[in-house]
Design a protein that fits this description.
- This protein is mostly helical and 150 residues long.
- Helices cover 49% and strands 7% of the residues.
- Strands 1-2 form a two-stranded antiparallel ribbon.
- Helix 6 packs across helix 7.
- The longest helix is centred in the C-terminal third of the chain and has 15 residues.
- The termini are far apart.
C-alpha cells in the first residue's frame, strides 16, 4: 500500500475496510498536514487490495490489524517491514517505515521525470525539498544537464 500510493505510514493504519473495498479511488485526510487527499488506485494496488479484502465485509473496521485485531501502530509496521526484508535476505541496508514513501517518490520521479507533479503528490512546499527527499543529488542534476542537448 505504501510503496504504490506514497501515503505516509501514519495514514495507512488509519484506513478502514470501507475506505478501499470496491473503490477505484482512495480518499483520506492526511494525519500530518490535515490536507484532504484523493487519488486513483493503480491496477496493481486494486488487485492487491482485492486479494487482501477477499471475504471481508464492508465496514468501519481497520483494514490492517495487529495480533489483537486493533489498528496497527507504526512500530508494528516497522517490525513487519524489517521481518519481510530479512526473510528475503535484505540485511545490509536500513529499511524504515518512511522507505515506502521515499521509494514511491524516487521511482515516480525516475519514471515521469516531473518533480513539480511529484511535489504536489507528496505535498511538499518546493521542488528542491522533493528532490532532496527522494535522494536526487546535485551531481545527478548536473549530469542530466551535461548529457542533454537539442
Amino acid at each position: 500500500m505504501g510503496i504504490n500510493s506514497g501515503l505516509r505510514v501514519s495514514d495507512i493504519p488509519g484506513l478502514n475496510v470501507c475506505d478501499v473495498l470496491g473503490k477505484s479511488f482512495l480518499e483520506n485526510r492526511e494525519k500530518k498536514t490535515g490536507k484532504y487527499k484523493r487519488f486513483p488506485l493503480n491496477k496493481k494496488l486494486c488487485k492487491l487490495i482485492g486479494e487482501y479484502t477477499d471475504g471481508m465485509v464492508n465496514s468501519d473496521k481497520p483494514l490492517f490489524t495487529g495480533k489483537k485485531l486493533g489498528k496497527l501502530h507504526r512500530s508494528q509496521v516497522y517490525r513487519f517491514l524489517n521481518d519481510a526484508c530479512r526473510a528475503v535476505g535484505i540485511t545490509d541496508i536500513n529499511i524504515g517505515t518512511h522507505t515506502m514513501r521515499k521509494s514511491f517518490g524516487y521511482f515516480f520521479y525516475k519514471q515521469y521525470n516531473d518533480v513539480v507533479l511529484l511535489q504536489k503528490i507528496l505535498n511538499h512546499s518546493s521542488p528542491a525539498i522533493t528532490l532532496r527527499y527522494i535522494g536526487i543529488s546535485q551531481d545527478e542534476i548536473d549530469s542530466s544537464y551535461i548529457n542533454f542537448n537539442l
